[in-house]
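Page 42, continued from yesterday. The earlier attempt failed because a stray header line got pasted into the input along with the sequence. Redoing it now with the clean sequence only.
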Amino acid sequence: MEKNMTLTYGINCNKSISDIMKKVINKVSTPVQLLSRYYSNILEKEVTSRQTWLLIEAQTAFFAGIMPADYPIVARLLFGAWFIIALHKCRKSGL
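This time it went through. Structure tokens are written below.
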């Protein structure tokens, strides 16, 4: 007696993976959209998602250089350079 098993792979699998990816992207982008609205209200002009990411980068660079008091001077200079570059990116984006 011969045992045969048929495995199917088709559109349904691809569609479900696509649906899962869309849900994950929506869940991840929700906080960025909320921050975009917050920054838009504070700055009184429309802020895009890219500009929001640039503002997050600038804030992270600022706090990384300011908050830890026991960093060596070289690390502080690197964080300062990162902060200046992040501010330059924000300015080029129109913020």
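Notes: The helical segments are 11-43, 49-66, 73-92.
Reminder to self: strip header lines before submitting.
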